[in-house]
Design brief:
Structural class: alpha/beta
Order of helices and strands: HEHEEEHEEEEEHH
């Protein structure tokens, strides 16, 4: 009889322990949840903004769209008529509070230092991890620009969450390698999806 009482108490305490552990995990996951702020610059068209925002919301519903703003003067690189992506990210990061990630959207040409090249034209930039990133539609194809614009945006947001470049050619996280392979990209691969799901991203299939 004493043995049965001991086992009953043991099972009871284990059940309570598991329940408390599950509650703690849930609280941790809730703390990890962020809000994505979409920050358009004034050159972005309403249609482009709508396409990118709706695309992001399909996989991460917690999104807010901010009022369009001008570029800070210190981001402009007059010699090449471009805007420095690193300066844009710094500007956006300083405006981004804890628990938020900001993505800047522009149709202007943006650039960053790449290796020995001081000013290299790019489609987007996002630090891994980071509080802000930027995507540009300047170097995208004219046929399906806004669809490609969304893919660039979601790629840079992936970097802010901690995702590196992916070797899968169809994955949104593939390295562009100085080109525009977005038409070949169809979705996040299974590995990248699993990573983002742990960051509270939502996917209908995996």
């Amino acid at each position: 009889m004493k043995n049965y009482s001991f086992y009953f108490l043991l099972v009871f305490f284990l059940m309570i322990s598991c329940k408390e552990e599950k509650q703690n995990v849930t609280k941790t996951e809730q703390k990890q949840a962020i809000t994505i702020l979409v920050q358009p610059f004034r050159d972005v068209t309403p249609q482009s903004l709508k396409t990118v925002t709706e695309g992001i919301k399909k996989v991460y519903p917690n999104v807010q769209v901010l009022e369009a703003i001008d570029f800070p003067k210190n981001t402009y690189y007059k010699e090449r008529n471009r805007y420095r992506a690193d300066s844009i990210i710094k500007f956006l990061s300083e405006r981004t509070k804890e628990g938020f990630v900001t993505i800047g959207l522009t149709s202007k040409d943006i650039s960053a230092t790449r290796g020995r090249i001081k000013d290299f034209g790019i489609m987007g930039l996002g630090y891994r991890p980071g509080k802000a990133c930027v995507a540009s539609k300047f170097r995208l194809s004219k046929d399906n620009t806004d669809e490609q614009f969304y893919k660039i945006a979601i790629h840079e947001l992936g970097h802010t969450q901690g995702l590196p470049h992916c070797p899968e050619k169809m994955c949104f996280m593939r390295d562009a390698e100085g080109k525009n392979p977005t038409n070949e990209e169809t979705d996040f691969c299974k590995k990248c999806k699993t990573f983002l799901m742990n960051k509270n991203w939502k996917f209908s299939s995996i």
